Amino acid sequence: MKFAFLLRLPTVDRVHALVNRPQLPFHLRPKPKLPSQRNGSRLPRLISISLSRARMPIAIWDNAMDVRVMLRSFPCRRHGCPASLRLLSLAMTLGVVGLLSWPWLQTAPAAAPSHEDPDRNSCAGFYRPAATPRRAVFSVEHFGAVGDGRTSNTEAFRKAVRHLESFGDKGGSQLNVPRGRWLTGNFNLTSNFTLFLEEGAVILGSQDPGEWPVIDPLPSYGRGRERLGGRHISLIHGDGLSDVVVTGQNGSIDGQGKIWWDFWWNRTLQHTRGHLLELVNSNNILISNLTFLNSPFWTIHPVYCSYVVLKGLTVLAPLHSPNTDGIDPDSSSHVCIEDCYIESGDDLVAVKSGWDQYGISVARPSTDIIIRRVSGTTPTCSGIGIGSEMSGGVNNVVVEGLHVWDSAAAVRIKTDIGRGGYITNVKLTDLRMERIKVPIRFSRGSNDHPDEGWDPKALPRIKGVHIANVIGFEVGKAPVLEGIKDAVFEDLCIRNVTLFVKKQEVKWQCEFVTGEAYDVSPVPCEDLRSNSSSSWCRES
């Protein structure tokens, strides 16, 4: 009888490379292809790796792990073998079966790990679709558009929306953009409306600034964010709308923003740059399954909106491009952002609510915001930012499954004297980061105000920020938490955090903060040392 048992595991370098491999958004990830079973060999198993204290299982299909059990019968037949050999064969077979039943060799259950399941904790309930399909469906070609990448289609898009607006109370409408390159200036959306980009469709932003008209500043900003006076309208815009869908088969919207970045670098900008997509005073919005490229300024900007879903998006801009934030919910409520991949020259996601005295006056907070499974990189800014324009307040924010690499910070809360407002009840869990300069940063002193009317007595209030289950590799330094002397950041809770930091930068920097920390490495500052008589943070 011949018996052989072979177990081949991936090398340490191979596992490290797989663990640190950047993750694509779900709608772009290829499904794992499993080889067919042949010659009695077992299929590759699903490896589940738990990273230290992070409690963040990472699922990897990999052919490097191959378990083969080869049982070859010896020459005699069943009834010709001595009883002793038959018993030995049975014992060895049972031994192999027992070995394969060990937990570390078991195949993972069919359900994927929690933050690899795109249906887990979905945004259901944030967007309420119409009871019936859109009644009127037209192609932009019907209105004279030409998808050659050179012909201006501004009037065609505007004409199409004006026509479809009449179906708003008659079952709604849908405008299809077929494969092609459709050059256009600004156009507005309408209510009960779907803009659908087919596979291979690209909407190109005009490089003529005249096709991005100047509009009034937002009330909560008081002026253009970059220049006094008005601001350029977004490429795709909507104001006062309800039930708006912008989706497709991974079509693209390309702002061709380089001319605008040049204006900024050369200091020849006359008005604040426009966004790629902005919706104002609107509700019941779904933006999904698209790629946004090269925005002149912040890419997607829902402001004064409610019940907004942004899902399955890819946002790309050169890493050196100025202020090309990915997604910026601003003075908006009930916003769900999930399964997005972002590379930009600014924050991947930034939660805002107005600027100094103007934001305080409007007093419209950003509240009830969920951000799940966002991944990406930004060399100068953060994965998740709150502020610095937060004068209307930020409350009830949940961030889960963030993955950031090669960035200035993973999480950053930005405030300043004169901002006023508040940031309360923020929970960030299951964060993963690699090669981050400062993993967690609370900063003060942005020193930018809209005008001389800002109030130096308006101090921000930061309370109840919880950060848990964090793993960080090749981190530049320990966290930096800087509050304000007369407005101490209160009730910070940091637990189950492991950061692999350069040896000379392991000391936390803390000032004007209070709270607790448990199971944290490197050792946190005295302001956050664990209090054995307290349990509010440990059990939160």
Q: Which descriptors would you attach to this protein?
A:
24-stranded parallel sheet; 34 strands; Pectate Lyase C-like; glycosidase; hydrolase; 10% helix; 540 residues; mainly beta; Pectin_lyas_fold
Describe the structure.
It is a single chain. This protein is mainly beta and 540 residues long. The protein folds into two domains: 115 residues, no CATH class; 383 residues, Single-stranded right-handed beta-helix, Pectin lyase-like (Pectate Lyase C-like). Helix content is 10%, strand content 39%. The strands form five sheets. It has a 24-stranded parallel sheet that branches. It has a four-stranded parallel sheet with strand order 9-14-17-20. It is globular, with a radius of gyration of 27 Å. 46% of the residues are buried.
Secondary structure elements and their pairing?
Elements: E1 2-8, H1 12-19, E2 46-49, E3 58-61, E4 66-72, H2 83-100, E5 136-139, E6 148-152, H3 154-164, E7 173-177, E8 180-184, E9 187-188, E10 193-197, E11 201-205, E12 214-215, E13 231-232, E14 236-239, E15 242-248, E16 252-254, H4 258-265, E17 277-280, E18 283-288, E19 291-293, E20 300-303, E21 306-311, E22 314-316, E23 333-343, E24 349-351, H5 356-362, E25 366-377, E26 382-386, E27 394-400, E28 403-414, E29 422-443, E30 461-475, E31 480-482, E32 489-501, E33 509-511, E34 513-521
Parallel strand pairs: 5-7, 6-8, 7-10, 8-11, 9-14, 10-15, 11-16, 14-17, 15-18, 16-19, 17-20, 18-21, 19-22, 21-23, 22-23, 23-25, 24-26, 25-27, 25-28, 26-28, 27-29, 28-29, 29-30, 29-31, 30-32, 31-33, 32-34
Antiparallel strand pairs: 1-4, 2-3, 12-13
